[in-house]
Amino acid sequence: MGVSEPLIQASLLGEAVEHGPAAVFVADEHGRYVAVNQAACKLVGYAREDLLKLRVTDLVPPEEAAGPWGEMVENGASRGTATLRCKDGSTVEFRYLAGATHVAGMPVYVSVGAVA
Questions:
Q1: What is the domain class of 22-115 according to CATH?
Q2: Which strand ranges, in their side-by-side order, compose the sheet holding 91-103?
C-alpha cells in the first residue's frame, strides 16, 4: 500500500494541518468559523469549542475584514496581514493567505498563516 492512497493522504494531511505550525481558520460563506486547528486556537487564546462559536468579525474588526473578505469571495483568494483580537483583549498581527474552496459540497474559506 503506497502513500498515494487517497484515504492515507487525507489522514496524513488532516494530522499535519491539525498539529502543524501554521494557524488554519476555516469559515463558511457567512463568516462563521467551522473548523480551526490547534495553532489557531493557541494564537488567539480560545478553546476550539469557543472559537467555533465566533465569526471572522469577532476576531478581525469589521472595517478591516470587509475588503479582504470581499476580495476573497469575488476573486477566490486574498493575502495580507490582519489584526486579530485575542480572547484576553490583546491583538496580534496575522500574515495570511486565504482562498475559497468546497468541502463536502459546502463553500468554505480557508485562511492559513502565522504571526507577522
A1: alpha beta
A2: 33-36, 23-28, 106-115, 91-103, 77-85
Residues 6+ apart with CB under 8 A from 95: 80, 81, 113, 114, 115, 116
* Beta bridge mates, 51: none
For the record, the C-alpha cell of 84 comes out as: 486579530
Q: What is the block-wise mean pLDDT of the chain (116 residues), using blocks of 10 residues?
A: 73 89 96 96 98 96 90 91 97 96 93 92
pLDDT of residue 8: 84
7 exposure class (CB count in 10 Å sphere: 0-12, 13-18, 19+): exposed
